[in-house]
């Protein structure tokens, strides 16, 4: 898919499209764009593609997560909007960093009974042995480790060995409120996040990141997590 590709939901849609469930085996999906003057959608449910830089402007369609579009202007318009080039027309998407980013990404898709995925920036890699944890590694020795299991009781202990808790805050990950725990360490940003994402899927994410940028990096990963909705029971 080229950088000018634009995947749209039905015209006039007021909300984001529901993503297609991920594959049942881990794989990497390259970001559709390699241009530095592009913006990538990181919101799990995509963002609205509008005819003008306003929430009152008509919605032409929806740009799904992972799609990168060329920027028509290198700076956001007043009010927080990127002007981008779609396949057939120019339009506008939000510049809120919670939903879009000028970084380039790839998508890791995890398997299991409840597939999940997360986006990771260029310069990062991942490693997974069999069905064990997924370890994402980045610059300056940064790591983020993802553990999965049917329930939180079956996940490893969250606290790093020999550490003490320094803070506890609530964050939202794909519609689920979870407790983000910080640990005392002057040389690194260390934190963990554990939550029951679906009845059959629990996640534990451990962060060992650079002290100054760690909080922002962790936040970026958390904002891109997508979890396949639970199946609807038959009548």
Task: Give a brief description.
With 235 residues, this protein is mainly β.
Question: What can you tell me about this protein's structure?
Answer:
There is one protein chain. The protein has one helix and 18 strands. The protein is globular. The longest helix is centred in the last third of the chain and has 10 residues. The chain folds into two domains: 110 residues, Roll (SH3 type barrels), CATH 2.30.30; 107 residues, 3-Layer(aba) Sandwich (Protein Transport Mog1p, Chain A). It is mostly beta strands. The strands form five sheets. The chain has a seven-stranded antiparallel beta sheet with strand order 11-12-13-17-16-15-14, with helices on one face.
Average of the residue pLDDT scores:
83
Instruction: State Rg.
Output: 18 Å
Supply the CATH class of the largest domain: Mainly Beta
Structural class: mainly beta
Termini gap: 39 Å
Structural key phrases:
235 residues, mainly beta, SH3 type barrels, Protein Transport Mog1p, Chain A, 2 domains, 7-stranded antiparallel sheet, 4-stranded antiparallel sheet, 1 helix, 18 strands, 41% strand
